[in-house]
Amino acid sequence: MQTSSPRFKSLAVTAGLSFWFFIITSSTGIFSIEILIIFVAIVLSVTQIFTKKISKGLDIFAIINTKIFLGILFGTIISIYGITFRFLQIDLLRLKKQDGTYWLDVEQTKPHRIRKQY
Fold first, then answer.
1. Residue 22: its pLDDT value, please?
2. What gap in Å lies between CA 14 and CA 39, rounded to an integer?
3. Is 102 a member of any domain?
4. Domain around 54
5. pLDDT digits 0-9 by tens, 76-95
6. Cβ 11 vs Cβ 55: under 8 Å
7. What's the structural domain count of the chain?
8. Neighbours of 61 (CB within 10 A)
9. Which residue has the higher pLDDT, 78 or 114?
10. Which DSSP letter does residue 5 get?
11. pLDDT, tens digit, 9 for 90 and up, residues 33-69
12. Is 30 helix (H, G, I), strand (E, B) or coil?
């Protein structure tokens, strides 16, 4: 983002803020498309007008917003994998002894069958 133009930073921050606005208003149950359009218009106009003065702040906000979003995305994906493995009864660490496993049992090699390879 440091090499991006201030106008593009303004658009990126507006998109990030409108995403979080949508998430928060949807979770509280007060979401409407009219409120979202008004919010986007106000944020976009303010950030476009003051884009030269707040360029550094837009950069910092975009980095923080990206870290939060990617952190939530990572946590969600790990949770989905955990729930799926629990639902399918997959034990990745093999902590429980299972009779009907798909792993082959390794035979013990007798000492008289071991030869040196060199």
1. 93
2. 9
3. no
4. 6-87
5. 999 998 888 888 877 776 66
6. no
7. 1
8. 18
9. 78
10. -
11. 999 999 999 999 998 888 888 888 888 888 888 898 8
12. coil
The alpha carbon torsion through 43, 46, 50, 51 (nearest 10 deg) reads 30
Residue 108 lies in a domain: no
- Give the per-residue pLDDT at 54: 84
Please enumerate in sequence order all residues whose Cβ is within 8 A of that of 116, keeping only pairs 6 or more positions apart, or say none: none
Q: How many residues does the chain have?
A: 118
The structure tokens listed for 106 are: 């390794």
Amino acid, single-letter form, for residue 27: S
What's the CA gap between 66 and 72, in Å, rounded? 10
pTM of the model: 0.58
User: What is the number of other CB atoms lying within 10 angstroms of the CB of residue 26?
Assistant: 11
Q: Residue 40 falls within a domain, yes or no?
A: yes
Please check whether residue 42 lies inside any domain of the structure. Answer: yes
Amino acid occupying residue 111: P
Whether 104 shows a pLDDT value over 70: the answer reads: no
